[in-house]
Structure formats: C-alpha cells, structure tokens
C-alpha cells in the first residue's frame, strides 16, 4: 500500500504532462462561453497569425484622469493568442506626478520595465515590510503575485513602462476603490479602517 501512492503520483504527473503537450496553444474564442480556466479555445483550423500579434501598445494611453495614468492591457481579452499561455503584457503611461495607486493582481506576478523617464515603484510584503526603489530607463522591478504595489512618476517628463504578467488575465483590485468605492456603510468602513467619516 505504501508504494501505491508514489506510483499513482508519478503516473498522474506523467499523464498531466503528456496531456499538456498535446495542444500547442489555446487562442481565445470570444464567441464561446468561458470555462473555469478562462476563455474557450478557438478551433485550430480558424487560428491565424494575427491571433498571435497585438497592435495596441504602440500609442500612449489617455492620461487625462485624476491619477494622470493610463494602463493599456494586452491580456487575453484584448490579445487572444496569450490565452492559456500564462503570460500577458501592458503599457503604462504616467504623466508628471502621475500615480498608479496601491493595487494588487491576485492572479499573476508582474515585471515593470521602464523605457522612458523615472518611476518610483514598490510593494508591501505580507509581513508589512515595504520594498521600493526609484527606477530609471532600462531598469526592471518585479511585484510578487497578490501583493499591494504602486508606481509614481518621479521625473520631469511623462514616463513610459511596459509590464509583463505571469497570467493571461492577472486581475486587478485597486485598494482605494476596494475600501471607499463600494456600498458599505460609512460606519463599517470607519470601524474597519480606523478612519473618520471625514
């Protein structure tokens, strides 16, 4: 009986590996219903090279908003070729004094690559230790999955960065909206955040 469990475990690993290698890709088919793993796969006969090319990151995003920032995603919803591959990308445009407020991606880690100007970025670990750095053109920083993190343009001109994720749909929860952009009663928000209503 002691040998059955390890043999079963090895067989399961080999079987799952062999099944994973049967399909090269799973291009998202937006006309079919989503499944538990995300978008359904397009029929391979209907897949074209254009499913694997995305043209949406060459232009700056609209930064005329309260945070002076724009994130232009190339997630599975915009870029069907990344569906099921465990990767995605985005473009970040930050005006002078622009900020991406504290937020988290519950479904993927993030790598930020600065391509223009200077961005101060950081994250808070689960033990509440803060890791932050001023990053210049060519620098990269990683934000582990699920941890609160931020980016601020600390330079003199608009900043640009490109972001990579370890998920085709990394998700997003912005702390400010989670705390204050909901329909919780003010007294509950006050009690749970130790802030006054003002």
Automatic annotation (TrEMBL):
<keyword id="KW-0479">Metal-binding</keyword>
<feature type="binding site">
    <location>
        <position position="105"/>
    </location>
    <ligand>
        <name>oxalate</name>
    </ligand>
</feature>
<feature type="signal peptide">
    <location>
        <begin position="1"/>
        <end position="20"/>
    </location>
</feature>
<dbReference type="GO" id="GO:0048046">
    <property type="term" value="C:apoplast"/>
</dbReference>
<feature type="domain" description="Cupin type-1">
    <location>
        <begin position="55"/>
        <end position="198"/>
    </location>
</feature>
<keyword id="KW-0732">Signal</keyword>
<keyword id="KW-0464">Manganese</keyword>
<comment type="similarity">
    <text>Belongs to the germin family.</text>
</comment>
<feature type="binding site">
    <location>
        <position position="103"/>
    </location>
    <ligand>
        <name>Mn(2+)</name>
    </ligand>
</feature>
<feature type="binding site">
    <location>
        <position position="110"/>
    </location>
    <ligand>
        <name>Mn(2+)</name>
    </ligand>
</feature>
<feature type="binding site">
    <location>
        <position position="105"/>
    </location>
    <ligand>
        <name>Mn(2+)</name>
    </ligand>
</feature>
<feature type="binding site">
    <location>
        <position position="110"/>
    </location>
    <ligand>
        <name>oxalate</name>
    </ligand>
</feature>
<feature type="disulfide bond">
    <location>
        <begin position="26"/>
        <end position="41"/>
    </location>
</feature>
<dbReference type="InterPro" id="IPR006045">
    <property type="entry name" value="Cupin_1"/>
</dbReference>
<keyword id="KW-1015">Disulfide bond</keyword>
<feature type="binding site">
    <location>
        <position position="149"/>
    </location>
    <ligand>
        <name>Mn(2+)</name>
    </ligand>
</feature>
<dbReference type="InterPro" id="IPR011051">
    <property type="entry name" value="RmlC_Cupin_sf"/>
</dbReference>
<dbReference type="GO" id="GO:0030145">
    <property type="term" value="F:manganese ion binding"/>
</dbReference>
<dbReference type="InterPro" id="IPR014710">
    <property type="entry name" value="RmlC-like_jellyroll"/>
</dbReference>
<protein>
    <recommendedName>
        <fullName>Germin-like protein</fullName>
    </recommendedName>
</protein>
<keyword id="KW-0964">Secreted</keyword>
<dbReference type="InterPro" id="IPR001929">
    <property type="entry name" value="Germin"/>
</dbReference>
<dbReference type="Pfam" id="PF00190">
    <property type="entry name" value="Cupin_1"/>
</dbReference>
<keyword id="KW-0052">Apoplast</keyword>
